[in-house]
Amino acid sequence: MMSARLIAFLCCSVWIQAQAQRCGQEYRDRVAEIHRQAAALPGERECLVLVGSSSFRFWPQTDTVFSSYEVVNAGFGGSCFHDAWRLRDTLIYAFQPSVVLIYEGDNDLQGGVAQEDILEIAATLLDDLSRRLPTSEVIVVAPKASRARYHLKDQYLELNARLRSVAMDHGAHWVDFWGVQHDESGRLRDELFIHDQLHLNAEGYAVWVNELRRQLPWLDPNAP
């Protein structure tokens, strides 16, 4: 008779394979590039890994933003929570980071992945991180607001509230940039995005950095 843990593992495996049809892509070249860049780091400081979609990949000057760490930007376009789970060994554990930042859920929602499924794989990933990197700090970044996907605003806000609870339940930090991406009247600040109205420009990332330092000042204690 199968144990409850084995049954849960098999169910999770079946679900992951199903999600691969909707979210998973072949990222071999990007993964190889990430490892080439990581190999060039001097290895003199603790490691910080950014894992997630293109909102992380395009983040400029992360070595300056996180100046206390050696930064591995493991973001890639189109990434979903399933991809972070599937590639966790090569994109996270291979670097034995002291800090892990996760940005997923944005493409999941846009791709039609059900919230329950997003939350399930997020919880599975966070549970795995807490077990395999018990002394590392894990930070979950809320899926951002963007004009290109603002028609899904209510779904984003609901997911973010539920994802925050999952992060807190697993001892992870939660960072949400939704508020600072809107002005005082509650309008989305379109000037923070490039022409596609999905990805941030330099001003948008500057807003992220300021808010990140406000919410988690320990990440960069030398920041002005």
**Radius of gyration, rounded?**
17 Å
SS class:
alpha/beta
Extended strand count: 5
- Going by CATH, the homologous superfamily would be SGNH hydrolase
Largest sheet geometry: 5 strands, parallel
- Helical content (DSSP H or I, runs of 4+): 40-55%
Distance between the termini: 60 Å
Write the CATH architecture name: 3-Layer(aba) Sandwich
**What would you call the shape?**
globular
By CATH reckoning, the class would read Alpha Beta
Please state how the strands of the largest beta sheet are arranged side by side: 2-1-3-4-5
Explained architecture:
Mean pLDDT is 90; it is low at 5-21. The protein is built from 10 helices and 5 strands, in the order ααβααβααβααβαβα. The chain has helices at 4-20, 28-39, 54-57, 62-65, 81-86, 88-91, 106-110, 115-132, 153-169, 202-215; strands at 47-52, 70-75, 99-103, 137-141, 173-175. The chain has a 5-stranded parallel β-sheet with strand order 2-1-3-4-5. Strand 4, helix 9 and strand 5 (173-175) form a beta-alpha-beta unit. The protein has 224 residues and is α/β, with parallel strands linked by helices. The chain has a single domain (24-219), classed as Rossmann fold, CATH 3.40.50. Helix 8 packs parallel to helix 9.
